[in-house]
Structure to design on (362 residues):
């Protein structure tokens, strides 16, 4: 830029050279050392958070959850319950009395409250009825529907009962214990 | 551990290689030695934390230059008063290779560079530092060489006009 004159236009080279001279500066000699020191300091400084710990922490947390759930399931196991059979409505197609299909007794197989099951049940509580009683009732209902059993032949609720004997209650007479004359004479009976 | 050692060695090599360039870029914006060193140091520290994520080591220079430029601009915006104070003191050209250049001429040149739009200023500064050619400037800025050419042309034109006008105006006084 020294050689440019006031009346002559500057060339590109002159402009570049002038800027180059302007920016021909170097950092202080210890600059690189200071940067190194700073970087080393940051590397050594403990960091409260490290991304590398994330998967390890997640694995530990998952393991803890599994252990807690497992131990809770083991401790909270309900005591064994008696086998319960829910009385299900009769199937649309009546089953033969001799062959009891699984569907006819599905309440007795699927709905049996097995011990150890701790699942919430939205269904109404099962009525405890013995399996033989359930099968007998079903057989009876199916026999009635198929006409194998005459409903008229069955005893009516009160048809074969004898008329009840009328209850006769004798009138009770109450006699006085003491007469008026006995009281006046002062004698005790 | 070996990977960390290799990374540290790579980074240290790049630190030595690029420290002057980064410092000059910061200085071109801030025009203050200490500020430029602070910003450059900060940029290196930031680059170090993200160095592991940089897959292409060849792009470190351009990555660093752009980061230094951005950080220096932020710093200048935050500290405009200080820059103006240093300009008045004439401490800006302490290391000029031309020796004792007149303060007035230096101030004029800085003023002309400052008047340039940011993109033109970036291109002309990088082209003037370390004699970068168009291809190198394009690589540093991550833009096509044709764009660098046009930016350099415009920047030189404006600088010449500005300097001519300043020179004429001051000598006429």
């Amino acid at each position: 830029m020294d050689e440019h004159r006031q009346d002559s236009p500057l060339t590109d080279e002159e402009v570049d050279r002038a800027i180059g001279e302007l920016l021909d500066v170097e950092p202080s000699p210890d600059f690189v050392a200071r940067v190194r020191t700073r970087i080393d300091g940051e590397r050594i400084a403990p960091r409260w958070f490290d991304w590398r710990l994330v998967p390890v922490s997640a694995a530990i947390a998952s393991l803890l959850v599994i252990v807690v759930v497992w131990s809770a399931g083991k401790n909270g196991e309900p005591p064994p319950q008696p086998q319960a059979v829910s009385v299900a409505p009769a199937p649309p197609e009546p089953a033969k009395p001799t062959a009891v299909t699984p569907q006819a007794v599905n309440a007795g197989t699927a709905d049996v409250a097995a011990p150890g099951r701790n699942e919430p049940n939205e269904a109404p509580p099962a009525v405890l009825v013995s399996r033989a009683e359930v099968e007998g009732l079903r057989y009876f209902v199916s026999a009635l529907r198929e006409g194998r059993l005459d409903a008229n032949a069955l005893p009516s609720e009160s048809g074969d009962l004898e008329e009840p004997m009328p209850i006769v209650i004798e009138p009770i007479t109450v006699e006085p214990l003491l007469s008026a004359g006995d009281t006046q004479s002062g004698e005790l009976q | 551990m070996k990977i960390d050692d290799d990374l540290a060695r790579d980074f240290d090599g790049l630190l030595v290689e690029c420290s002057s360039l980064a410092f000059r870029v910061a200085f071109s914006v801030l025009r203050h030695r200490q500020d430029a060193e602070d910003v450059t140091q900060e940029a290196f520290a930031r680059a170090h934390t993200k160095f592991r994520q940089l897959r292409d080591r060849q792009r470190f220079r351009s990555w660093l230059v752009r980061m230094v430029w951005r950080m220096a601009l932020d710093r200048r915006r935050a500290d405009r008063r200080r820059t103006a104070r240093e300009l008045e003191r004439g401490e800006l050209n302490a290391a000029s290779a031309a020796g004792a250049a007149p303060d007035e001429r230096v101030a004029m040149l800085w003023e002309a560079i400052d008047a340039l739009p940011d993109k033109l200023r970036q291109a002309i500064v990088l082209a003037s530092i370390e004699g970068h050619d168009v291809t190198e400037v394009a690589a540093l800025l991550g833009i096509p060489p044709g764009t660098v050419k046009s930016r350099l042309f415009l920047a030189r034109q404006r600088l010449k006009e500005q300097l001519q006008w300043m020179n004429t105006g001051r000598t006429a006084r």
